[in-house]
Amino acid sequence: xxxxxxxxxxxxxxxxxxxxxxxxxxxxxxxxxxxxxxxxxxxxxxxxxxxxxxxxxxxxxxxxxxxxxxxxxxxxxxxxxxxxxxxxxxxxxxxxxxxxxxxxxxxxxxxxxxxxxxxxxxxx
Length: 124
What we know:
By secondary structure, the protein is mostly helical. The chain has a single domain, classed as Hyaluronidase domain-like. About 60% of the residues lie in helices and about 5% in strands. The chain has six helices and two strands, in the order ααααββαα. A two-stranded antiparallel sheet has the order 1-2. α2 runs antiparallel to α3.
């Protein structure tokens, strides 16, 4: 399957930890079909990670919950991506979030959170 260039760039930027850019890349193709809940889920995952980076734990929690809700209907694999692995990653991130709405930026940067390296199987 030939995937949109923005999707492949999203995977690359995600793996580089460029979550704001991830949002911009997927938003371009999601705007063409707002019923695509897979793209919306991946968008919300990247926004959640962006919030997490800056200490907005309430926003991260909200986005992770939405991402999980949308992505759960696409497993085990969709668009060459192991959705089950992504869902486990979301759960791992949620499990280590401090029980607060926000933390200072410096504290957020110093925290260790789970990591995930996305891979797209282009033979799907």
